[in-house]
Structures are given as structure tokens and as C-alpha cells.
Structure to design on (219 residues):
């Protein structure tokens, strides 16, 4: 009986680890409260400062690895800290709200909106939303958030509000190929649910206030 209990505990621990290692990408618009101006590819050791100056007070310090996120050896929710997280691919994305001379202001708590500054040593750590969507979206395909209203799912003939809608828009929001971006609109090729027909049209990927409607797969 004791042996069975030990095996059960080991299985539960392994399952938890596997779930943490699997990571996540945002599926719903309300799962992300702060999008900011772009994304920051966070290093495994994250030191947050109160101001963009190494002499300012450190606000917090985080670490992440294949098992998840921790702070002072205490496990934290990766969904609060990151926009998207995939430890196996070594991708941890934070929302950036401002930048100045090698420093980036990031949101380190999506629930409370707490912000702080990270000193960047490699400019490639930051991508604007446009560059991020073009880079990852064109290579890996994109998807629309599941709670996106139907009015924003309509494929149109031009990147303008009120432009003519395509006659058929019965497509899968999980399987969209990004072709080009113009402002807050993207030209896409969308497949129907049977993956037999495709439609090319324009659709919103971002609102005027910066809210994101779509996200690329992380591959």
C-alpha cells in the first residue's frame, strides 16, 4: 500500500511538472490586461528596477526554468508574469509599456498592473507588436482569440472599417496564415473548417487603443 502511495505521489508531481513545462499562450482577450507597445523576451533571471537606473532600488527578482517561475524560491504563476510562456522553447514574453536608452518598462504582474524597469544587454530582446506579429506570425501562423466578437472576425476586401465583407467567412480562427500587415489590419489567408477552401481578406489584429485580437503560435 505504501509503495502504491509513493508511486501515486510521484505521478502527481511528474504531471504537475509536465503541466508547468508545457507553458501557455493567450487564448482569450481578457486573459491579458496589459499589452503595451511590444514584447520582451525575458532572460531566465529577471531583475526589476524602480527606475531606468542601476542605482535605483530593485523592485523584484524572478527566475524561471523548465519547471516554472519562482521568486525567493517560492513558486509563482507564470500567467501573472508573462504574456506567453514556453520553457521548452526557452520563450518567456513580458509586456513592454515604455523604453529608453537600453531600458524597458515591463509589466511584471498582469493582474495588478505592477511595472518596473529591466536593463537590456541585447537589443534583440525587444520586439514591437508589429515586428513580433510579422516575425512569428508569418512563420508559424496565427489564431484569433476565442472570445473575439463576430464583428471583428469578418474578412474584408480592404483594410478599412465599413469596407465590403467577403461573401463567405466560414473559416477556422485557429488556422490563419498571415500575409501582410498595414497599420492595425492584416491581410490573411484563412482556411475553412474542413481545410478544403481558403479565403484571402483583411481583418483587424489590433484595436486603436492597442488591444490585441490575434496572437502567433510559438514554434
Amino acid at each position: 500500500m505504501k509503495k502504491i502511495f509513493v508511486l501515486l505521489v510521484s505521478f502527481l508531481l511528474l504531471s504537475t511538472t509536465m503541466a508547468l513545462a508545457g507553458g501557455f499562450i493567450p487564448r482569450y482577450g481578457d486573459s491579458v490586461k496589459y499589452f503595451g507597445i511590444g514584447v520582451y523576451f525575458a532572460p531566465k533571471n529577471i531583475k526589476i528596477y524602480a527606475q531606468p537606473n542601476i542605482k535605483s532600488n530593485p523592485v523584484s527578482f524572478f527566475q524561471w526554468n523548465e519547471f516554472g517561475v519562482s521568486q525567493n524560491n517560492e513558486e509563482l504563476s507564470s500567467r501573472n508574469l508573462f504574456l506567453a510562456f514556453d520553457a521548452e522553447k526557452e520563450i518567456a514574453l513580458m509586456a513592454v509599456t515604455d523604453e529608453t536608452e537600453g531600458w524597458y518598462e515591463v509589466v511584471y504582474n498582469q493582474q495588478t498592473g505592477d511595472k518596473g524597469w529591466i536593463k537590456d544587454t541585447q537589443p534583440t530582446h525587444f520586439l514591437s507588436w508589429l515586428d513580433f506579429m510579422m516575425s512569428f506570425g508569418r512563420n508559424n501562423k496565427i489564431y484569433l482569440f476565442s472570445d473575439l466578437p463576430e464583428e471583428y472576425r469578418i474578412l474584408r476586401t480592404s483594410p478599412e472599417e465599413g469596407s465590403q465583407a467577403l461573401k463567405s467567412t466560414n473559416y477556422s480562427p485557429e488556422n490563419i496564415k498571415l500575409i501582410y500587415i498595414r497599420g492595425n489590419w492584416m491581410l490573411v489567408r484563412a482556411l475553412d473548417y474542413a481545410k478544403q477552401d481558403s479565403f484571402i481578406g483583411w481583418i483587424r489584429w489590433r484595436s486603436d487603443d492597442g488591444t490585441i485580437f490575434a496572437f502567433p503560435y510559438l514554434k
